[in-house]
């Protein structure tokens, strides 16, 4: 009661003091009541067996104990097992009330601080031992009894009986018998032996090992799998008898050797049959649309690996090549590298393949026959079985007949004409199949031609029938080449002169002959059109008409398109009759002559004209010359002075007459007057005009002659072929034609003229030369030049066509003109490679920038159309192709072992600007030839293995494996170990098996670093590489004891003002093991002091890690465990109770921050103005508080130092 009264003391007013006292009394009474009630309530509950105040920390605890444990051995528990002492007056005891039927266990109580521990141990009086194999657990019911208040509580403890190694492993079955082939691969599992141990955990562990190692086998010490580690040979050994020991591992660890049992293993080695390689399964050829063949082949190895595959028969043209398709020599590919002429193998190809292995002598596989069908091949066939063509017999030589074509996928087809009597008149272009004529035709001589055309020398055949169409090509023929006749002038009109006769061998209208006189002028003759009789049509006059008529008589048939006309010359001559009298040109002549005119001088000349001109005119003086003074020349009519004129004669009158012998002219009077001597003679006559008249008549008579001459020149225009055809000047001499010009379309119309008429002007056109391939044809009559077969500039860049135009006259005339046809390039040709596929072999050590192949594609187009650029279609960083030269260049390292072959697709494309660019591709297969460039490669480079130090000798630790992808001796590897570490390890030189030869000791050496070297046998020098084997030896054979604490529970105290890191207590545990197994480490796992304290894991010293405050926490519990550093650490537990000791570290605290009081004025001293109250949480300050007021405030008031009551001074 004093405690609570003291705690409530303070300075207050009187009223407050009264109130405070009342409330304190009430409070004190209340507290006292509560304490008393609490004690009495507990007693009443104890009497009623209410156990709720007494309880274990857990309803169930898990504990462990070893079987066969000695008496008074405590079970182990990682947590605090017991009851928290909430009342310091409690006295607790523990008893096992159930679960211990065999009376093995006993319970104890141990109180530390505020906790009462429950401890269970084996009884000392019981001679029986715990046996896990009989019973491995107990569930104990423990009752706690508190004697002061008679409280009770129960809990359960599950005790697990731990195994100890007290049993041997046993085999089942105890013997094994297996058969294996002598070619069984290394590392193969032969048999698995099996043993069991009834112990559990590490006590059930055991090792398998051979009792003898003189055999090619190894047993896995853990699994019992027997493995083949060396190659077998049936000839040397047919059977192995092995003994396998299953040895208890823990016993061996503790020094007890061969604690276990054995099993017998019999391995029978069976001889391997001699097996040849086999090509399997039957390969199926793949034939592409363009005829390329690919056959994938797999060869199953026999005794030895496959060395090669080759074609035995079936490839005489060497179309195929065999290349490997994988790094291992079991997969091959038969590919075609040349274009196969399927027409020569229309039923397909039959290849015989055989494989060879690496045995000595080699084993050969059975020959495998592969049929490559020519399914894509279609035999040649002409579009038509028979071509029937009709040609005009007017057709000139080189006339287009027909173009034959075949149905085929063949790229190259050639044509030829099969010789027979009719074939000589025709010619075929071997490439285009165009047939042209070689000569002229005559329907009347032969009107039908038949011959055969062959494709590819007889692969296909067609029949050609050429019918010659009859034309009006025969003109009528006269019986005589010419006719002559005479007729007298003045013959009566209608008189027959002569008859012409002509015949025509043509039939029908073509042979019906009519006659006519070809004359455009007037003729005195007519001809009967049907009889050919020529008669006069008017009176003939020799003097006024033509004296001779040259008639051109036509004989015409009735054919079409023109009549054929023949002409025959007919000459009709007029007979002249003497029916005209001579006539003088001048009459009435007056002549003067001098008297002294010399005799013999010409006085005058008289002349007469006789139109008949039959006889020579004669002149004579009829009268007036009787004196014979004058004379006249009878022929010329010249009058001369014959005698000297007598002086007496003054004049003379002469009458001169002209006669033609039949008729006399009228006399012409000539008057001669004699004049004086010395005078000049004069002549004066009167012109009769007869000369002009006769001239006019002569002109009139000559005019028909001129006209007749003109007719002679032009009247035969329709029957005489006088003029040659003339080619029109506008026809060009050169034209440009694109090579893709549309077929059967007109390129140019050729025009010519002929001023003749009829057939003489009828023109036909022909290409006489320059059209050897027959790609051009000209319409015979219209002159339209057409293109009838595709042009190919790359085959022929230009043509010089000799276009000849013929008329159909007789004789036939012609004209010609050279036409230069320039074929203009179009981009119609892709670049072309020689082969569709190339296979090259290059060493794998070929340096970078080396040219290994040059792709050559030819584009026969011109300019950019023929400019070829190369590129790869295959993505690759190893090669590049020069776009201009096509050189394939190595750009990266080659590695046959990484990639045996490279399938590259090269594209050659032109650079056409108009239209799409064309391209071609080839497949370049680059086979890399092996070079010993690869040292053996370990995978992995570093082997990390962990080996228990107690594994038996002969254990196969690891297979070190290297891969050398080189072929032959370059891929044959041997191994060696640089350091065997004193013979502890052994490495098989051929297999790479690393085995243990001497026992390991972790304490002596915990790890090994071995260097393994692998060397190949390549030439010219061997290559090598190394790997490292890091062996960690596992410590498994000495951790037999767990750490043991010196105390079950530790108690310590620490001042609450202890500095951080202050050492409080040291726990200690010992481990009987040595080495790491005996090294102890300490750890805090649980408890209220977790985080407040730390423990040095090596020393076990527990230190503070933060400031303590007893007023907050008065004590702490820690759960500490100790563990060793064994491979499988063992653990022990303990508990630590830490009490915090108090110091005076807290100042008193007033109950209120401000106190208020009031007193009346003018009063004397007041003993109690106010009561102040202070408290101090430190236990050491209890009852030691004192009060005082500041000196400056003591003028009127003061405070009682013990009670805290304020009063006036």
Automatic annotation (TrEMBL):
Residues 57-171, 172-279, 383-478, 479-584, 591-691, 729-833, 834-938, 939-1045, 1046-1150, 1151-1204 form the Cadherin domain. The keyword Repeat applies. Signal peptide: none annotated. Keywords: Calcium, Membrane, Repeat. Gene3D superfamilies: Cadherins. It is found in: Membrane. It holds the Pfam family Cadherin. Coiled coil: none annotated. PANTHER family: CADHERIN-23, PROTOCADHERIN-16. This is Cadherin domain-containing protein.
